[in-house]
Amino acid sequence: MPIHKLEHFDQNYRETFGGDDVKALDVYTEGGDRVGSVADVLVDDDGHFRYLIIDISLDFVSKKILLPIGLSRINYPERRIYVDGLSRQQLENLPDHTEDAIVDRDYEENVRSVFRSPTSDLTYDRDTYNYQKDPDLYGLNEQSHQTFKLYEERLIANKHRIKTGEVTVGKHIETETVHVTVPIQKERVLIERVTPTEAGKVVDPNELKFQEGEVVRIEVYEETPEIHKEAFVREEVRVKKVVERDTVEAQDTIRREELDVDTTGNLHLQEDGITTDEAI
After folding, report:
1. Partner of 222 for a Cys bridge, out of 28, 66, 186, 255, CB 3.0 to 4.6 A?
2. For residues 129 and 112, what is the distance between their CA atoms, to the nearest angstrom?
3. Are 75 and 86 in contact (CB under 8 A)?
4. Helix (H/G/I), strand (E/B), else coil: 276
5. Is the pLDDT of residue 14 over 80?
6. What percent of the chain clears pLDDT 90, i.e. is strictly above it?
7. Which of 73, 89, 90, 64 is closest to 25 using CA atoms?
8. In a domain, 199, yes or no
């Protein structure tokens, strides 16, 4: 698994740790002797601390080394890191860690071999090794690194759409009987028999012509109504939706956990960077 410098993994790591900067802490032995300071931290892909890069400054040795995180105890209130059992021989056997050093699996194994117990029967395999196989080197001491979370509820306002109804627009046909008046004309033949204006006048037999058969033809016409229907646009209807906006207020009771600290006896207590001496 690749190893990264803390700042390369998380540029805002100080905010992540609530303003604490592990790279500003001094390194002490359990006996209270200062042996150096933290130059940097190496983390894995998941952000787990794996090594402290410690700038060692002692009379007999001065160099930078990699220290597996499980061998340290971080105390932020005291601004110190305590190292368990860091011997002079271990310091001398550790490689001098330089900025251009390539921390690969073999490099890590060289560091582990210095701190691993001589009675360990672990066989190193480059392809199968994982940090869980060396809990003494990479496991954090829960007694020295106790953490817990304070929870707080918050009110989240979301929206979702629900169907409140629907409008269907359709058409139906209504019928009615309409009366229209159409004037029409009919022709008829009127035959009148009237007294001739020359009644009694003698007609010359030579001029008289008697006829038989058809002598007059008159065509008679009659109008008949022609009724048909035609369609036209009577009205136009437009259907659309409009969005009305409103603000809905909601309220609820939320909970928040606060820290209660009870102390007994005379002790040196520091909270949020403020140090107090309490006598109970």
Report:
1. 186
2. 12
3. no
4. strand
5. no
6. 4
7. 73
8. no
pLDDT for 271 equals 58
Number of domains in the chain: 1
Does residue 103 form part of some domain? yes
d(CA 20, CA 14): 6
Q: What span, in angstroms and rounded, lies between the C-alpha atoms of 276 and 267? A: 9
Rounded Cα distance, 47 and 69, in Å:
13
CB atoms within 10 A of CB 84: 13
- Opening angle at CA 127, ends 123 and 130, nearest 5: 70
Amino acid identity for residue 42 in this structure: L
Whether the CB-CB separation of 76 and 40 falls below 8 Å is answered with no
C-alpha 81/C-alpha 24 separation (Å) is 10
Q: Which domain holds residue 67?
A: 4-154
* Amino acid identity at 202: V
At 133, phi and psi to the nearest 5? -75, -15
How far is 99 from 121, CA to CA, in rounded Å? 32
> Domain containing 85 — which CATH number?
3.90.50.10
Phi (first) and psi of residue 42, to 5 degrees: -110, 130
Three-state DSSP at 73 gives strand
Specify the 3-state DSSP secondary structure of 107: helix
Long-range contacts, 220-226 (Cβ 8 Å, 24+): 220/187, 220/188, 220/189, 221/185, 221/186, 221/187, 222/184, 222/185, 222/186, 222/187, 223/184, 223/185, 223/186, 224/184, 225/182, 225/184
112 assigned to some structural domain: yes
Q: Is residue 139 in a domain?
A: yes
Q: And the tokens for 52?
A: 């402290």
Average pLDDT over residues 17-35: 80
